[in-house]
Write a structure and sequence with these properties.
Elements lengths: L6 H11 L10 H25 L16 H17 L4 H18 L1 H17 L21 H21 L1
Helix pairs in contact: 2-3, 2-6, 3-4, 3-6, 4-5
Length: about 170
């Protein structure tokens, strides 16, 4: 009637309930988010080539462009948490709020900062060569995303999370 459970017994019973594969720990939300970001960044030179007929491999490591890697990352996180833990928990709520902030920022503040950088670069180019600002390095103007780029990133993030969940 009085059983004593040793640490080894508790550890082995915990392992039998765990669904993690042997080896590295399987964290679906984290892996989905990183994979979605990587896939989005990988796709950027291809979408640039389709749109502009110009290959630019630097797009793989730059911000802005199609699809939004920020949106892909946060929506993969949201979808994976929802698939793994359900939508009623606080982790899901935090991820949704984070996703909303990130995607709003991508289409709002960062997009408009990029447009302002375009205008400033144009103004500087029109200055006479003797002007002290005329030799300033141009500002990066590909900062934010259009709503279409954000939606494409969000769809990509959901697809990655669903595929990762299916493969686990």
């Amino acid at each position: 009637m009085n059983e004593v459970i040793t640490a080894a017994d508790a550890s082995s019973s915990f392992r039998s309930y765990s669904s993690d594969p042997p080896g590295l720990p399987w964290n679906l939300p984290l892996l989905s988010a990183f994979l979605a970001c990587a896939v989005a960044q990988f796709l950027k030179p291809f979408t640039t080539w389709i749109k502009d007929k110009k290959w630019d491999s630097k797009r793989m490591i730059s911000s802005g462009g199609m699809p939004s890697s920020h949106s892909a990352t946060v929506t993969a996180l949201v979808a994976a948490i929802g698939l793994q833990e359900g939508t009623g928990g606080s982790a899901f709520a935090i991820a949704v709020v984070l996703a909303c902030v990130v995607m709003y920022d991508a289409t709002g503040v960062r997009l408009h900062a990029g447009r302002q950088a375009e205008l400033l670069n144009q103004i500087v180019c029109e200055l006479p060569p003797e002007h002290p600002v005329s030799s300033v390095k141009p500002l990066r103007d590909s900062l934010g995303h259009t709503p279409l780029q954000v939606v494409a990133g969000a769809l990509l993030g959901c697809i990655v999370a669903f595929l990762m969940k299916g493969s686990s």
